[in-house]
Amino acid sequence: MADQSSDGPAAERLLHISVRREPAAIVVFANGEVDILTAGRLRAAVDEALREAAGRPVVVDLTAVTFLGSHGLAALADAATAAQQRREQLRVVVDETHAVIRPLQITGLNEVLALYYSVEEALPQ
User: Which of 20, 53, 65, 84 would be 27's cystine partner, CB 3.0–4.6 Å?
Assistant: First the structure.
């Protein structure tokens, strides 16, 4: 039986998450598919970054995401709400890849999230 949990080996193969902590920001990198199996991993990484932020922006780099499903969109919407409640900045990095930008546009999340086109652009000046 395949592992269906968001923390299991299948999820790790589908979505790789890494975090870079910098003095000016915490950057969460997502690489792969954000779907029902993996959205929990993204959500947990962003939640942890928001808890650690202490006034630094949290930058979520989605440029290496190849699929963004409804569970991933919900995770981003929840992250935006959590950031607002904590009075922390959440910045999301996207590119023109339809796998990410199109779902954000269709759902209107592109109007809610602070979108940037590179990590460098999203980092505080």
Answer: 20
